[in-house]
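Practice problem: predict the structure.
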Amino acid sequence: MRAYGGMIAFELAADLAGTRCFLEATEVITLAESLGGVESLIEHPAISDTTIPPEQRAQLGISDSLVRLSVGIEDVADLRSDLENALGRLPD
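Answer:
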């Protein structure tokens, strides 16, 4: 059996406050400053890359709603459920 890790980035249809709400709602996936390891980690570049001015982040494509996810070895159903729950907490 082969297993692969993965790194994905996506933008939420949310503002900074909504993105923070999403990140705080994850339970299986851990909010982290850097990504790597066997556990699933999620990162918010707009918050963690504070040394980069907002104008430069925008030029680099780092929006307030950009999220990076390092997928670990947890059960896929647990990860999917965690993300679905967090997405359900986004404000309308």
